[in-house]
Amino acid sequence: MKLLLEAIIPKERIKSRLIDLVASASDAGFYYLRPKAVVQPVSEPEIKALFSFSHEHKIPLTFRTGGTSLSGQAITDGILVDLSQYWNKINIEENGELVRVQPGITGSMVNGHLRKYKRKIGPDPSSIDAAMMGGILSNNSSGMCCGVKLNSYHTTKHIRFILPDGNTFSTENNADYDRFEQECSKVFRTIIEIQEQLNQNAALYDLIRRKYRTKNTVGYSLNAFIDHQHPLDVLSHLLIGAEGTLGFIAEAVMQTVPDYPYKTTAFLYFPDIYAACQAIIPLTVSGAEAVELMDRASLRSIDSLKGVPERLKTLPETAAALLVEFQANSPEELHVKTNMFLSEAGALSMLEPPLFTEDVKQQAFYWKLRKGMFPAVGAVRASGTTVILEDIAFPVAKLGDAILDLQQLFKKFEYHEAIIFGHAKDGNIHFVVTQAFHTAAEIERYDLFMQDVVKLVVETYDGTLKAEHGTGRNMAPFIETEWGTEAYQIMKRLKQAIDPENLLNPGVIINENKKAHIANLKPLPSVEQEVDKCIECGYCEHKCPSRNITLTPRQRIVVRRELAGLKASGNKQEFELLVKEYQYDGLDTCAVDGLCATACPVDINTGDLVKRLRMESHSNTANGLALGVAKNFGATAFAVGLAVKTGDGINSVFGESTMRNITGGLKKIIPAVPLWSNQLQSTKGKLKGHDNGSVVYFPTCINRMMGGAKENKKSVPQTFMSVSDKAGIKVLIPGDIGGMCCGQLFSSKGYSDAYAYTSNETVKKLWKWTSGGKFPVVLDVSSCTHTLQHSRTVLTDENKNYFDQLNIIDSIDYLFDQVVPKLKDVRKKDRIVLHPVCTLKKMGLEDKLFRLASHFADQVDVPLMAGCCGMAGDRGFLFPELTASATAPEAGEVKNKAYSGYYSTAKTCEMAMSDAVGKNYESILYLVDELI
After folding, report:
1. Which helix (H) or strand (E) segment is 422 a member of?
2. How confident is the model at residue 485 (pLDDT cuts 50, 70, 90)?
3. Average pLDDT over residues 504-508
4. What is the DSSP letter of 504?
5. Residue 460 CB-half CA count within 13 A
6. How far is it, in rounded angstroms, from Cα 317 to Cα 609?
7. What is the number of other CB atoms lying within 10 angstroms of the CB of residue 322?
8. Cα–Cα distance between 895 and 633 in angstroms, integer?
9. Tens of pLDDT along 307-329?
10. 262-270 sheet: strands from edge to edge
11. What percent of the chain has pLDDT over 90?
C-alpha cells in the first residue's frame, strides 16, 4: 500500500507503521476501524490524486480533521486522510464580517483571529477548542448559543470543494455555475429532478421545511433543495452536514456574528423539569442567548467540584436548573434584556429569586460546570465501559413530557447513572449513559434501548434523532424511520449520483446494515487508571507539543489500550512490534509538560502516565546511578557547568556553530548524545547577597550552569540581583546553593528515588535558609517553581510540616507583587512578545505575566499559537526534532511581526524559541532591569 501511495504522496507524509494505524483507528465516538494507511496531503492536486487512487484500487477514503465527532463518522478501514496539520490557513475579510478558512484550523483559533474585530463564527460547539473547521462544516455544527439560524449551514457564504470524480468548484466563481452543468451533468440533472419532485410533493416539501425549523442533522441537508435554486448552490449546502460522504471541502467563507462584549449569567433553580421548561419561552422572548437545561442527575454529577454553589448540593431530588446568559453590545442594552425577563420571573415557579452575575471569572466557572457534566460521568464510570453522549431534539412545548419519558427508559434499561442536559431554547437535549460492549447481553441492551429511544423521539414526539452531532454510523440505520421512505430514497439517490462506487466514507449516513449502530464497536480493555478514565474525546490534542511529529495524548492512550488487547488475544508479533514503536513515539517524544491535563475534561495528565511508564522501565542499576547523581549533585552541576564553559571556549575559537556541528555529527552515530544549542551560554561572575535579606533567592541549577547571556549581558542570576537592588529589596543568597536542585531533572525521567531524595534535601535547606519559613523563596525558572510547589507527595512527614510553612514563589510573583509596587518611574518599550511557558499556564500565572509585561511595554503580544516548546528541560537536546516541530506554529506567527523584545520565564524554553524564531528570547527579568 505504501509503495503505491508514494507515487502520489511523498513517503514522509504517508503513515503506515502499525503504531500509526492503531493510533488513528479511533475518534471520539465508540466505534473502531483500523485504516490501511494514513496520508497527509498538502494541496488540492494531491487530494485529486487520492480520489483517483481510491477509484483505481477500490479503496475507501475518509477525511479527518480534529476527530472529535461522536457518531463514528471519522474512522475507516481504508485510507484515512489527515488534514489536521497542513490545512490551517485563515484570512479575515471585510473587517471581520467574513472569514476564509481551510478545514484544518480549530474553531477557537478562528475565533481568536476574529476577537479584535469583536466577531466570531456562528457555530459554538462545546468541543470548539479541539474541533476543526472541516468537521464543524461537515457535521453542520451548532452549539449552545447559535440555534438554527447561526449554524454552519446558515453562516456559510461560499465553499470551494472537490468531488470524487476530481472536479473542483467554487461558489465564488461565477463561471463555475455553467461549468458545473457541463462537467457534472449527471449530478446537475439529479439535483434538478429532486427539486422538481419536492415541488410536486407538498407534504414532503412541508415536512422538510418544518423539520429544519429546529436543529436537525439526520441524513443529508434536504433543506438545501428548497432553500436554493441553482444546483451548484444546492450541492454546496448539501456538503454542509454531509460528513465527508459527498466531497472534500477545501475552503469555506463564513459569515461571522457579533461577539458581544457585555454578558450577564445566572443559575436558575426549579422544583422540577416541568417548571424549568415553563421558563424557556419567557427567556427566549427576552433575548437570552443561552438557555441550558440540567436535570437533577446532571447537577449531582458536578456537585463535588471545587467552587460549586452550595445551593446546588441541597436541591430537592426532583429539581432542575437552567444556566442562562444574556449578551449585548452595551450595559444598557444588557440590562433591558435582563429586566424584561425579571419582570416575568415572578410568574415562574423558582426555588429562589434569580441572581445574575457580570463577573467574568464567575461566568467562566459557570460554563466550566456546564461543560463538565459529560466528562464528570465519564470520569467515574466503571473500567471497561464507554461513555455515550446522545443528541436529540423535541418540540419545545413538549420538552418536559419528553424528558420524563426518557427518564423512564433509563430506569427500564438500568442506566442508573444517566444524566440529561442541553440547549433548552432549541428543544435540543443531550443524554449521557455509560455502556459496556464486551458481552452479547450488553450489546443487546444498548440495541433495545436505542430502538425505544427512536420510537420515543420519532413516533411519540415527532422529534429529531440527531440535532447537532451528525448521523455517522450511530443513527444511519434510523434515517428512514425519521424521514420516511421517499426522503430517504432521495438521500440514497444523491449519494449514488455523486459517489456511485461508495468509496467516500462508506457506512456513514447511507448504510444498508440495520445493525450498523452496534457494528465495529470500540474495545475498551482495562489497562491502568489514567488510561481507563480516558473518553478519547481529543480535547487534549491541540495542546500537545508532539502532535505533529509522533503521538498526541489521546493516541498514547489509544495505543496503550491496543497493547492490552493484543496481549490478551495472544497476538505476540503485533504486541512486540507495537511496544518497540511506542518507545520513541509514546515515551521518548512526550514532553511530559502536562498541558494536556488543562484541556482534558476528566483531568488526565498523560505526562504523569509517561513518567510512570519511564519509571517502570528503569533498571535497578539506572535508578541507583540516578540516586548517586542526586546525592552528589554539586559535583554534577560543577561538571556540567565546566562542560558548558568548555563548549563556549571552543565556539569562541573555532566559530559559533562548532559545538553544534560536533555534537550533531556524534548524534548521527550515537543518538543518545545531546545536541548543542547555539543559545547555550555559561554563567559568569559571582553572586553576592545580603546577610539580612527579606527574600531568599534560589538561583536554579539551569541558570547557575548556563544562565549566561549573549552580547556580554549580565547572567540571569546577576540580573535578578540587579532588579532587586534597584527596587531596594535585600536578597539573601544561600552560600550552599551549589548542590541544590528542584528535582525536575529526575521527576521528568521517572527516577522516583532520586526525585524524592532531592525534594527532601531541598525542602530541609529551604527551611533553614528561610529561618523557619519567615521569608519567601523565589526561583528564576517557572518550571522549577512548579516542581517544588508540587513536591509535597514525596516528602517525609517532617518535611511536609516544613513545606506547609514555606512560601515558594515564581519570579513573576516576585516582580509583580514586590518589585513593581516599589517603582515610581519606568520607561517602556513599544512592542514586545511573550512566550508563556507551560508551567505558567498550569500555575495560573499567564495573566500576571501579561500584566507585568504591560508595565514595561505599550503593546504586549501573546501569540495565538503559543504552546509548549517541547524542550522539557533536556528533552530538546536529546530529541531536537520534537522541539523543532513544537515551536514551528508559534515561531511562524511571531516571525510575521517585528518586536523590540522577546521574553519568557524559563531558560531552556528561551533557547528553543530563540532557535525557532531567530531572535534572542530572554528572561522577563532583563526587560524589568533594562527599564527601571
Report:
1. strand 419-423
2. very high
3. 98
4. B
5. 17
6. 38
7. 25
8. 39
9. 888 888 899 999 999 999 999 99
10. 262-270, 320-328, 290-295, 419-423, 428-435, 386-393
11. 81
The per-residue DSSP string of 18-33 comes to HHHHHHTSB-SSSBB-
DSSP 231-272: HHHHHHHHSTTSTTSS-EEEEEEEEEEE--SEEEEEEEEESS
Q: Higher pLDDT residue, 579 or 370?
A: 579
Contact 747, 612 (CB under 8 A): no
Map residue 461 onto helix, strand or coil: coil
DSSP string, 112-176: HHHGGGTEEES-B-TTTTT-BHHHHHHTT--BSS-TTTTSHHHHEEEEEEE-TTS-EEETT-THH
Interatomic CA distance for residues 647 and 654, integer angstroms:
10
The closest of 123, 468, 426, 464 to 281, measured between CA atoms, is 426
Q: In the chain, how many H helices and how many E strands?
A: 43, 24
pLDDT at 331 over 90: yes
Given a contact cutoff of 8 angstroms between Cβ atoms, the answer to whether 17 and 581 are in contact is yes
Place of cell 509503495: 3
Report the relative pairing of strands 79-82 and 37-39 from DSSP bridges.
parallel
Residues 44-65, mean pLDDT to the nearest whole number: 98
Distance of CA 924 to the CA centre of its chain: 28
Burial of 395: CB neighbours in 10 Å, binned 0-12, 13-18, 19+: middle
How do residues 695-739 score in pLDDT, each as one tens digit? 999 999 999 888 888 777 899 999 999 999 999 999 999 988 888
Please report, in angstroms and rounded to a whole number, the separation of the first and last CA atoms in the chain.
64
The residues near 414 (Cβ < 8 Å, ≥ 6 apart) are 445
CA-based nearest residue to 794, from 725, 833, 744: 744
Whether the pTM exceeds 0.85: the reply is yes
Reduced to 3 states (helix: H, G, I; strand: E, B; else coil), residue 1 is: coil
pLDDT band at 241 (very low <50, low <70, confident <90, very high): very high
With a cut of 80, say whether residue 672 has pLDDT above it.
Answer: no
Torsion of CA 62, 892, 716, 808, to 10 degrees: -40
What distance in Å separates the CA atoms of residue 276 and residue 518, rounded to the nearest whole number?
35
Query: Does 451 have pLDDT greater than 90?
Result: yes
- Residue 557 and residue 536 in contact, taking contact as beta carbons nearer than 8 Å: yes
What does the buried/exposed string (b/e) look like for 766-795 if buried means 16 or more CB atoms within 10 Å of the residue's CB?
Answer: bbebbeeeebbbbbbbbbbbbbbbbbeebb
CA 431 to chain centre: 22
The string of pLDDT tens digits covering residues 384-434 is: 888 899 999 999 999 999 999 999 999 999 999 899 999 999 999 999 999
CA 528/CA 612 separation, integer angstroms: 11
**CB-count exposure of residue 58 (10 Å: 0-12, 13-18, 19+):** exposed
Strand locations in 560-701, DSSP E?
695-698
**Local confidence band at 635 (pLDDT 50, 70, 90 cut-offs):** confident
Burial of 496 (0-12, 13-18, 19+ CB in 10 A): middle
| Residues near 247 by beta carbon (within 8 Å), at least 6 away in sequence | 161, 162, 163, 164, 239, 498, 504
35 vs 16: CA distance, rounded Å: 9
DSSP class of 464: B
Averaged over 788-792, what is the pLDDT?
A: 95
Burial label, 612 (beta-carbon count in 10 A; 0-12, 13-18, 19+): middle
Round to whole Å and give the CA distance between 369 and 126.
12
DSSP, collapsed to helix, strand or coil, labels residue 353 as coil
C-alpha closest to that of 428 among 220, 215, 137, 267: 215
Among 509, 513, 517, which Cα is nearest to 222's? 509
